Amino acid sequence: MSELGYGWAVLLGVIQGLTEFLPVSSSAHLALSQKWIGLNPSSLTMLLFDLLTHIGTVISIFVVFREPMVRYARRFVAEMRTDWPYRRHALRIALLALCALIPTGVIGLAFKERFEAAFSNSRGIGVDLIITGVLLAATVAFPRGRRGWKAFRAGHAVLIGVAQGVAIFPGISRSGSTICTATFLGIRRRWAAEFSFYIAIPAIVGAAMLKLKEALELGLDAFVSLPWGPILVGSIVSLVTGVISLRLLLGAVRRARLHYFALYCWLLGGLVALRVL
Fold it and tell me: Global pTM?
């Protein structure tokens, strides 16, 4: 097995940051990269590396969406007053997010063992990448969505949450599956992207906490001898590249160009499924 040095940390940080938001499945790329490099994904070093790089990508969401998030937070606090005279849009969005996160959590817990086993199944990862490509390509057949927040129902949120839950399997893109599902439901592109990343925050943090739990189970004494330098560098790199990839994805969503990523998913998925890579 290889050791995590600065070079591998930078490479994996770039892969995590770019693929967490671009609709090409970060979990597939990390699983394949760690396998090719020869790193042990269940080691304490890699558990903490995955944890901190995921936190880095969460921070990148706050960086890109800081202005609408600040406006939303202020509106939410104001709406909690009993004398609020207007419609409670912020509270409604929070309830929609909750509707999405419940099926995500249920699927994640119910299929946790299968999810972990899927990381070692290269052929399965390749097939799932091909499925992601099909979803992305299918967006071309759907007209521009017209549903805004007022027409965004709990049922829509549940279906998007199911899509996010299924994306725990490496090869199924989280951003791709949620944005594509919202697009198929007729949600406006802007709201589809924003809702996808709002519900990504608790989902990614939840996955990171599971990594932390696994790491703590290995014992605190081992933390002292870890390569903290490469781990921290990788997390910073994932943050920076996460900001770049998130802005690239938002541009692709606005211009209805998600299908451009389908060819990449099909090519990589086919090569992996056929075990060429």
Answer: 0.89
